[in-house]
Task: inverse folding
C-alpha cells in the first residue's frame, strides 16, 4: 500500500551571513491514512520548518534544498503555485503556531471562517455563518463569538479559532503545530478528541508538540527530532516504555510529571548551533553514552525491532 | 510581607454584537471576565494561577501591571494603592512590576532586533549606558539559553522559533530585576528539557533577589513545580486556593479534581472526577455556584446560593459540598 505522505531526504536550510542553518537535515518520514503521528523535540530543532516545508510555505532566506514530498501520489515540490494553493487548506490543513499567520487582526473571526469556507465550498453567506457558529461551538466557544475580533479573545480561545479554521475544510491531512499550548487539560482533551475522531473518519494527523506525555497518550507513532534530524521513530507505547536513543531517554527523564515525586532532571547542555553543528553525531556533546566514533562520523540510521533509530549504539 | 494584594477585582467587557443585534437590543451586556477576585502574593512567593481557557487569567495579570483598568476592586503594591496610578507615577513602579506576555509572536516588534528588545527597557529607565545595556542583554540571552548571545542579539524575531521567542520575552522582563513578575504562560512553547532549565533559572532569580511571581499556566505539573501556592480560577472567580501539595493531593473543589483527572501522565492515577459539557457563557452566569451546570456533585443548594471562598491560609475553596479525597 502506498502511504498518504512520503517524505524522502528532505533538507531545508536558512541562509544567513553567518552561513547555512540546516533546520531540516535529510529527513525521511512516511504517514499512512488514518494515522496519528506526534513530532516531539526541543525548541528550535526544526519541527515548524518541517511543517512549513510540507505546506511549501518556506520563505527566503529559507529554501528547500533537496528531497521529495509525495502526497497522494504527487510530488508537492514539483507542483506550480496554483496547484499548491489548491492542496493547501482542503487537502493539507495546518494549525499554525503563530496565531497571526492565519488570523487577520482587523476582521471579525466569523467573517474569517466564512471566507475560508466559501473559498472552497459553494454555499451562501448565511449558511456559512451558521457553520462557523457550529465550528466554534465544537471547539468549546460560544457561537456568538463570531462577532469578535481576534484581540478580544483569550490566548486559548484564539488558538481554538485557528483549529476551527483548519478543520472547517475537513482536510485529508491536518498538521497541527503546537495547537494546545494555551489550553487547559480539559479543553485540550476536547480538541484531541476532535482530532482522534478525524482519524476514525479516514483523515491523518501530524501533531507537533513539545509535550511528550500528550504525544505519547494520543498518537499512534512518535517521531523524535534533534537538531534537524529524526533520531528515533516508532510505535508510541513501545518508544515510551523502551526508548532507544540517548536523547529520547533524556527527554523522557526531564518530563515534569504531576504525580511523580521527583525533581525533574535537566538534560545537560544546550541544543547545538545549527550553523556550526558538532561533527559526527550532533547530540554527542550532550550524550552520556558518546563514544569515539560519535565524535567523528555521522551515526547510521538503523531499524531495531521495527523502530527507526539514528545512533552509533545500534550501529554495525 | 505582602508584595501584591488584590481585593474584589472585577473586569467587565461590553459584549460584541452584530449590527442587527445592536439595532434590536435594549441593554448593554457584559462579559464578566474577572468577577470578584482577591488574593495576596508574599515577598519571594510564587503563586501559580491555573484555570480553564478564557476564565480570566490574562485579564487579572494585565490589570496587575496596569494594562487594563479594573471595573471594580483595588490593587496594592507593597501596601500602596496602585489601582488607578497612571503617567509618570506609574512608570516609576513599572520597573518593579513586569509582565511576560502570553503570545510571544505578538509581543515582539517585528522590526526590532532581538537584542534591542532587552536593551530598550534598560535605556528607558536610565539603568545602563548603551554599552552596558548591550553587555547585559547578551548575558541575559545566554542565561535563557539563546547561545551564542551575540548572534541572537542581532537576529530579528521572524528568525526565531516559538520557544526561542518566549525566552526573549523572559529575558526582557528579567533584565530589569523586577520585584514582581506576571508570567503569562511563559514556558508554554518551551520543550520539557529546556523548560526545566528555564524554570530553574526563574527559581534562581527568586533566590538572587527575592523575586515574587504570579505564574499563569495551564499546565498543572508546571504549576506544582514552580508554585508555593496555587489558585484555581473558574469563570472569573477563584474557586480554590492553597498550598501546592494541599490543592494537588487533597483537591476540595470538583473543578480542581476534574482538572487533575484530565492531566496526561505516564503515571496514571485512578482519579476520575468528571465534568459535564462546555463552559457557561460569562454573559449569562447560572444562578448559585457558577460551576453547577457542569458539576457531577451539584445539589439544590448549588443552584441557589453562590458559595464563598472559605477556609484557612493553607487551603480555601468555594464549594457547598467540598470533596474529601486524597490523591497520592
Ligand atoms: N526565517 C528564518 N530565518 C533564519 N533562521 C530561522 C528562520 N526560521 C527559523 N529559523 C531557525 O531554524 C531553526 C528551526 O526553527 P523551527 O521554527 O523549525 O523550530 P521548532 O522546532 O518549531 O521550535 P519551537 O518548538 O521553539 O517552535 C531554529 O534554530 C530557528 O532559529
Ligand atoms: N478586549 C476584550 N474585549 C472583550 N472581551 C474580552 C477582551 N479581552 C478578553 N475578553 C474576554 O474575557 C474573557 C477572559 O479572557 P482572558 O484572556 O483573561 O482569559 P485567560 O484565562 O487568560 O484564557 P487563556 O488561558 O485562553 O489565555 C474571555 O472570554 C475573553 O473573550
Ligand atoms: S550516536 Fe553516540 S553520541 Fe549520538 S546519541 Fe548515539 S551514543 Fe550518543
Ligand atoms: Mg515551532
Ligand atoms: Mg491568557
Result:
Amino acid at each position: 500500500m502506498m502511504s498518504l505522505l512520503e517524505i524522502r531526504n528532505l533538507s531545508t536550510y536558512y541562509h544567513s551571513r553567518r552561513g547555512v542553518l540546516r533546520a531540516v537535515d535529510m529527513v525521511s518520514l512516511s504517514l499512512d491514512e488514518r494515522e496519528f503521528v506526534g513530532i516531539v523535540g526541543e525548541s528550535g530543532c526544526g519541527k515548524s520548518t518541517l511543517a512549513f516545508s510540507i505546506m511549501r510555505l518556506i520563505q527566503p532566506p529559507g529554501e528547500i534544498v533537496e528531497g521529495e514530498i509525495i502526497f497522494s501520489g504527487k510530488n508537492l515540490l514539483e507542483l506550480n503555485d496554483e496547484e499548491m494553493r489548491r492542496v493547501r487548506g482542503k487537502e493539507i490543513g495546518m494549525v499554525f503556531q503563530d496565531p497571526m499567520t492565519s488570523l487577520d487582526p482587523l476582521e471579525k473571526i466569523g467573517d474569517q471562517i466564512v471566507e475560508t469556507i466559501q473559498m472552497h465550498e459553494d454555499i451562501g453567506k448565511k449558511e456559512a455563518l451558521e457553520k462557523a457558529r457550529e465550528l466554534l461551538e465544537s471547539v468549546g466557544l460560544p457561537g456568538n463569538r463570531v462577532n469578535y475580533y481576534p484581540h478580544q479573545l483569550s490566548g486559548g480561545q484564539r488558538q481554538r479559532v485557528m483549529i476551527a479554521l483548519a478543520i472547517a475544510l475537513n482536510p485529508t491531512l491536518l498538521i497541527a503545530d503546537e495547537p494546545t499550548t494555551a489550553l487547559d487539560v480539559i479543553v485540550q482533551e476536547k480538541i484531541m478528541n476532535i482530532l482522534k475522531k478525524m482519524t476514525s473518519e479516514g483523515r491523518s494527523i501530524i501533531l507537533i508538540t513539545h509535550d511528550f506525555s500528550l504525544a505519547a497518550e494520543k498518537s499512534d507513532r512518535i517521531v523524535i527530532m534533534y537538531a534537524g534530524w529524526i533520531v528515533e521513530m516508532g510505535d508510541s507505547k513501545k518508544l515510551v516504555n523502551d526508548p532507544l536513543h540517548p536523547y529520547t531517554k533524556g527527554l523522557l527523564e526531564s518530563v515534569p510529571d504531576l504525580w511523580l515525586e521527583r525533581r525533574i532532571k535537566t538534560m545537560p547542555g544546550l541544543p547545538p548551533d545549527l550553523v556550526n553543528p558538532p561533527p559526527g553525531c550532533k547530540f554527542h556533546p550532550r550524550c552520556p553514552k558518546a563514544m569515539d566514533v560519535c565524535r567523528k562520523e555521522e551515526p547510521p540510521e538503523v531499524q531495531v525491532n521495527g523502530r527507526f533509530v539514528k545512533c552509533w549504539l545500534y550501529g554495525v | 510581607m505582602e508584595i501584591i494584594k488584590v481585593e474584589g477585582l472585577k473586569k467587565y467587557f461590553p459584549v460584541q454584537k452584530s449590527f442587527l443585534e445592536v439595532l434590536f437590543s435594549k441593554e448593554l451586556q457584559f462579559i464578566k471576565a474577572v468577577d470578584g477576585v482577591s488574593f495576596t502574593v508574599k515577598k519571594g512567593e510564587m503563586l501559580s494561577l491555573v484555570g480553564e481557557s478564557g476564565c480570566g487569567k490574562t485579564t487579572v495579570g494585565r490589570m496587575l501591571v496596569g494594562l487594563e483598568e479594573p471595573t471594580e476592586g483595588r490593587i496594592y503594591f507593597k501596601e500602596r494603592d496602585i489601582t488607578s496610578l497612571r503617567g509618570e507615577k506609574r512608570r516609576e513602579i513599572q520597573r518593579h512590576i513586569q509582565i511576560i506576555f502570553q503570545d510571544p509572536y505578538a509581543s515582539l516588534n517585528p522590526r526590532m532586533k532581538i537584542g534591542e528588545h532587552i536593551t530598550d527597557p534598560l535605556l528607558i529607565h536610565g539603568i545602563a549606558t548603551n554599552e552596558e545595556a548591550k553587555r547585559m542583554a547578551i548575558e541575559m540571552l545566554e542565561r535563557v539559553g539563546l547561545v551564542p548571545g551575540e548572534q541572537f542579539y542581532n537576529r530579528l524575531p521572524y528568525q526565531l522559533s516559538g520557544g526561542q521567542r518566549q525566552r526573549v520575552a523572559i529575558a526582557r522582563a528579567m533584565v530589569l530585576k523586577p520585584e514582581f513578575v506576571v508570567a503569562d504562560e511563559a514556558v508554554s512553547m518551551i520543550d520539557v528539557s529546556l523548560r526545566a532549565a528555564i524554570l530553574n533559572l526563574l527559581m534562581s532569580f527568586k533566590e538572587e533577589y527575592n523575586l515574587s511571581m504570579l505564574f499563569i499556566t495551564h499546565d498543572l505539573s508546571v504549576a506544582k513545580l514552580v508554585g508555593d501556592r496555587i489558585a484555581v480560577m473558574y469563570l472569573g472567580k477563584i474557586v480554590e486556593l492553597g498550598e501546592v501539595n494541599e490543592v494537588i493531593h487533597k483537591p476540595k473543589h470538583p473543578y480542581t479534581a476534574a482538572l487533575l483527572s484530565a492531566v496526561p501522565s505516564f503515571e496514571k492515577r485512578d482519579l476520575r472526577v468528571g465534568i459535564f459539557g462546555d463552559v457557561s457563557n460569562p454573559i449569562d452566569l447560572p444562578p448559585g455556584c457558577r460551576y453547577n451546570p457542569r458539576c457531577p456533585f451539584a445539589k439544590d443548594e448549588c443552584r441557589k446560593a453562590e458559595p464563598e471562598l472559605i477556609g484557612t491560609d493553607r487551603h480555601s475553596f468555594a464549594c457547598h459540598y467540598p470533596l474529601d479525597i486524597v490523591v497520592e
User: Anything to note?
Assistant: Chain B touches chain A through 61 residues (CB under 8 Å). Chain B has two domains: 2-227, 250-328.
